[in-house]
């Protein structure tokens, strides 16, 4: 992970007050304009009249550090704060939190920016030996609708194809997975075994065709799900799928989804259960 250091010189946004961080706060820039990337937002913070700042700004190309992590920024200021934030952080949470701004400029790749944000957040949490309980949305501290794609369903549907609660839970799960993943040590001898994974998910049966929740099923077997907000196009492993959106969740026909995952789908009518198994490796 590469970080570009462009520390602010604007004393209005960088007061130089030393702090001891207690938590990491996630924001979005709320600027979808073309060109509103990390450097543009850093330039905004550095204007003499700007009284706002964050420690990091992330776009699809780079991560910019605007403030040292042990200096206070102005990213969660408000007239009042939620009781839990005051209890766990302080009466003025700016003085103990690190802020990350996520860029949403339309000429950038949201998925690439999301991945860089994950990498940065995991790096910070690991260095301070924090778990995901130290991860906050701006909304959790002040009630502000930020980041909107983690707090408002309409924006979550636009950027993730799902509801806000699910999008935020996915972000935290992605962080948790990266925090807890450890490479396995080489083994002298390994035997094969069969594994079955049951997902706590419900599909849809419509006109005799079963439909499965795309992201939950695909990611469970190592598939890569893509979502294009502008076109509402869903891809799995680079292949486009026809989907329907139900309550913010994308569903695809079981056999179509199985095909792009290199799986075979079977239907058990008695239990109304769909089973996906790897395609036979026998070539005859």
From TrEMBL:
Keywords: Cell wall biogenesis/degradation, Hydrolase. Its EC number is 3.5.1.28. It is an enzyme of class 3 (hydrolase). Coiled coil: none annotated. One of its GO terms (molecular function) is N-acetylmuramoyl-L-alanine amidase activity. It catalyses: Hydrolyzes the link between N-acetylmuramoyl residues and L-amino acid residues in certain cell-wall glycopeptides. Transmembrane segments: none annotated. One of its GO terms (biological process) is cell wall organization. PANTHER family: N-ACETYLMURAMOYL-L-ALANINE AMIDASE AMID. This is N-acetylmuramoyl-L-alanine amidase. It comes from Brevibacillus nitrificans.
